[in-house]
Design goal:
Blueprint lengths: L16 H8 L5 E6 L20 H10 L4 E4 L1 H21 L7 E2 L4 H10 L13 H17 L6 E7 L3 H5 L6 E2 L2 E2 L3 E4 H10 L21 H4 L6 H15 L21 E7 L5 E8 L1 H12 L7 E5 L21 H14 L9 H11 L5 H7 L13
Helix pairs in contact: 3-5, 3-9
Bound molecules: iron/sulfur cluster.
């Protein structure tokens, strides 16, 4: 993990904490913050907080002390992403159109940019589902704004991400409406830690707190998004349900859990989704491994239906915005285990059982993949161009 490996080429991290203070001092602004799954596994490291104290609920308490009006968990929209992406995959798989298969996950902006630079002819293979960060921003400035009776343009939407590339994702022209960007500001885990220090907060003195509602409930499937293989596993759990009308065991797809060191290339596995629907999957992290996998796909030496790609070795757990340590200890795998342990003890482990996601469909969006869901939660990867290489 290294910011110099940042897939968007941001060799120096842009510090956005000043813009946050500016928004917070504006009495007209309502500040809303979301916390990405992988951040909870790392934020306590450079503060010397033991893992049992460095929980996401303590983060919620800290963020309220920092002055945020509403605090949410991006794992909610990770569940929403799964509903849209799982449905999209089943449609593509049933259609059997090889121009759209394998379907590639699209929640990692570093990977999306890599594909558009190196294999632009495969852009249609990317899922059109927006990333959880961007789905969250879109829902906050539409459904949530209506619910609290605030103009979307008055909401200042912030995300705490393990990722430097997310700063560029929220700036894409496809991620804005007339009310402005869906996500106004992205802070990395490191910037969040700097804020805590700047405000002289001692997280150990701050109690754990719950999230605001709605959008404050998440499943274990939403949390494992932060580890390599997690998006694929979560998607297969719900694709199985959508295909068969009943749940698999949550652990049935654990064979896709990627190699968090990124050293073994990629992980492949085949599953019977029911009725003879055999799905061939691959999970890869790190751009060197990704390059090798894409070369094999292009040469026709490997064949998959669904591929998860994360630009950082180990996925977002090892993301470029996470704390940096000077020792040689590999932390992505360790942080990934924290996320899988959270999943194991969650009451709800399937995205399609998230009650607040289901309420959003019932009250506003209709079905996954509906016209409304397409308009709010999907994007056109052709609608922006990669900047010319210098
Ligand atoms: Fe960002 Fe995660 Fe992709 Fe790394 S793997 S670039 S942290 S989204």
């Amino acid at each position: 993990q290294c910011i110099t490996h940042c897939p968007v080429g941001a060799l120096r991290e842009r510090d956005d904490t000043g813009r946050l203070f500016q928004a917070m001092s504006d009495p007209d602004k309502v500040t809303v913050v979301q916390i990405a799954p992988a951040v909870r596994a790392a934020w306590g490291e450079s503060l010397g907080l033991p893992p049992e104290k460095a929980t996401v609920n303590r983060m919620a308490g800290v963020l309220r002390r920092l002055g945020f009006d509403y605090v949410f968990d991006t794992s909610f929209t990770a569940d929403l992403t799964i509903m849209e992406e799982g449905t999209e995959f089943l449609h593509r798989y049933a259609a059997g159109d090889t121009r759209e298969l394998p379907m590639f996950t699209s929640c990692c902006p570093g990977w999306v940019r890599y594909l558009k630079s190196h294999y632009p002819e495969w852009t249609d293979r990317l899922s059109t589902a927006k990333s959880p960060q961007q789905m969250f921003g879109a829902v906050v400035k539409s459904s949530f704004a209506r619910r609290i009776g605030v103009e979307p343009s008055k909401i200042f939407s912030v995300s705490i991400m393990p990722c430097v590339a997310k700063k560029a994702e929220c700036d894409l022209p496809t991620m804005s409406t007339d009310a402005g960007p869906d996500v106004d500001l992205v802070l990395t885990t490191r910037e969040f830690v700097r804020l805590i220090r700047a405000e002289k907060l001692n997280p150990e003195d701050i109690p754990e707190e719950g999230f605001d509602s709605p959008m404050g409930v998440y499943s274990g499937a939403g949390v494992i998004f932060g580890a390599t293989g997690g998006v694929m596993e979560a998607a297969l759990r719900s694709a199985y349900f959508l295909h068969n009308g009943h749940n698999p065991k949550p652990e049935d797809f654990r064979a896709v859990r990627g190699d968090a060191t990124g050293a073994s290339g990629w992980t492949e596995a085949e599953f019977d989704l029911g009725g003879g629907a055999m799905v061939r999957t691959a999970v890869v992290s790190g751009l060197a491994n990704t390059g090798r996998l894409l070369a094999e796909l292009a040469a026709g030496r490997v064949h998959y239906d669904f591929v998860e790609v994360m630009a950082c070795p180990g996925g977002c757990a090892g993301g470029g915005g996470q704390p940096i340590h000077t020792d040689d200890v590999e932390r992505a795998a360790q942080r990934g285990k924290v996320l899988y342990n959270i999943d194991r003890i969650q009451t709800v482990r399937f995205s399609h059982e998230n009650p607040e996601v289901n309420a959003l469909y019932r009250e506003e969006l209709g079905e996954p993949g509906s016209e409304k869901a397409e308009a709010l939660l999907h994007t056109d990867h052709h609608a922006w161009q990669m900047p010319a290489q210098r």
